[in-house]
Each structure stands twice: as C-alpha cells, then as structure tokens.
C-alpha cells in the first residue's frame, strides 16, 4: 500500500479534556446526496472513543507545506495541539491554513479489522483552491502536480 498515493488529513474531535487529533491517510468522499465522508480510525485510539461519545469529527486536509502537522498528529500522546493554533468550528477543532476542511456528524461506526470506519454526514466543508494538498507516497510526504 506504500505505493498508493493518499491525501493526508488530521481528524479531530474535542471533549472535556480539550482537542484531540490524529493523522490519517484513509479518508474519502462517500456520498454526494447526502454529502458524506469516511475516515478509518484505529480501534484502540483515544480519538475513536471521543468520536463515539460526541458524535462529531472534523477532517483537516493538510496543505503541501503542513508535513510537520502530519508528523505531530501521527505520534502518540495528548499534547499534539501544544503550540498549534486552532479554532472550534461546528464543535470540532479546525487547524489553520489547510487545503480543505470538513465538519461531520457521525452517522455510523463500522468494524473493519483493527480499525473502525467512521461515516460522517457533512455539516460544513471548505477548500482553498490556492493550496495543494499534502500526499503520502512511499512513506514520504509530497503533493500532487498535474501532468503536463
């Protein structure tokens, strides 16, 4: 699967302890009517438990210059938001200057091996057409460049 290029996003949620987030490359559009997305979350992740309890999650599609966000949110621990500006939007943490943003209400959590698939109804979505998305391919970050 390392040979399959994927977008890089940080999935976020918030609870009484504050914001939480994790880097994912398993994120996709699921439906246009109604607008829905799918993200895959590790069955043992704290974020999954928060999504289960709150019924909401955000998807921050990172821009090509946000590889450091990708690294920070990929590690374990609770201090991932230290020094990172964020705002609450539709009840979930939103990172600044991302290529895309989606706020979701969780409609289903489906078991899938050692992960669960979180299906989300899109409450709000925005994108910045001036920013290229961050991608992950062959275990390195990059971006999409249109073919000549």
Low-confidence stretches: none
Q: Describe the strand arrangement of the main beta sheet, using strand numbers.
A: 3-2-6-9-10-5-4
Query: Structural class, from secondary structure content?
Result: mainly beta
Mean model confidence by pLDDT: 94
Query: What is the level 1 CATH name?
Result: Mainly Beta
The total domain count is 1
Helix content range: 10-25%
Number of strands: 12
Main sheet properties: 7 strands, antiparallel
- Tally of alpha and pi helices: 2
List the secondary-structure elements in sequence, H or E.
EEEEEHEHEEEEEE
How would you sum up the global shape?
globular
Task: Give the radius of gyration.
Answer: 14 Å
CATH architecture: Roll
Please report the distance between the alpha carbons of the first and last residues. Answer: 26 Å
Strand content: over 45%
For this structure, what is the CATH homologous superfamily? Electron Transport, Fmn-binding Protein, Chain A
Keywords summarizing the entry:
mainly beta; 2 helices; globular; single chain; 148 residues; Pnp Oxidase, Chain A; 11% helix; seven-stranded antiparallel β-sheet; three-stranded antiparallel β-sheet
Account of the protein in words:
The protein has 148 residues and is mainly beta. The protein is 11% helix and 51% strand. A 7-stranded antiparallel sheet has the order 3-2-6-9-10-5-4. The mean pLDDT is 94.
């Amino acid at each position: 699967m390392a040979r399959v290029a994927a977008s890089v996003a940080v999935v976020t949620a918030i609870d009484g302890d504050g914001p939480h987030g994790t880097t994912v490359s398993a994120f996709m559009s699921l439906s246009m009517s109604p607008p829905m997305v799918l993200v895959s979350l590790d069955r043992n992740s704290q974020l999954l438990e928060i999504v289960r309890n709150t019924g909401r999650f955000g998807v921050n599609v990172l821009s090509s210059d946000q590889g450091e966000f990708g690294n920070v949110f990929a590690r374990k621990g609770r201090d991932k938001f230290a020094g990172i500006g964020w705002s609450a939007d539709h009840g979930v943490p939103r990172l600044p200057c991302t290529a895309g943003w989606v706020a979701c209400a969780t409609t289903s959590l489906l078991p899938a091996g050692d992960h669960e698939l979180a299906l989300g109804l899109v409450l709000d979505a925005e994108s910045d057409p001036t920013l290229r998305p961050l991608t992950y391919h062959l275990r390195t970050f990059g971006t999409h460049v249109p073919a000549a």
